[in-house]
Amino acid sequence: MTAKRKVEVFSAGCPACAEVESLVKSLACPSCEVDVLDMHDISVAQRAKALGVRSVPAVAINGQLAGCCAGRGVDEASLRAAGLGQP
Question: Thioredoxin-like fold domain: from which residue to which, for each copy (predicted)?
């Protein structure tokens, strides 16, 4: 059995965030568990800070901030390199 991959999308509800949410959901495989988290929630903001999120949208996979989200923005190649979409 394939292990689940936990994917967290940190969002502020903006159009750019919605675009990344759609991208992540389209790339996700059956073993990916995608959660979209609202940065307006203080507990979500604290989690994001602990992961090193500096801007939104941002994506963490299995508790690690995706390389594309370390201050540069989200891109498909970095998400795939981090394991998104792979069973």
Answer: 6-66
Superfamily of domain 5-78: Glutaredoxin (3.40.30.10)
Domain residue ranges in the chain: 5-78
Divide the 87 residues of the chain into consecutive groups of 10 and give the mean pLDDT of each group. Answer: 88 95 95 96 96 92 88 76 87
pTM over 0.90: no
Burial class (CB in 10 A: 0-12, 13-18, 19+), 45: middle
Q: Residue 56: which residues within 8 A CB-CB, separation 6 or more?
A: 10, 11, 12, 14, 16, 17, 39, 48
Q: What gap in Å lies between CA 59 and CA 11, rounded to an integer?
A: 9
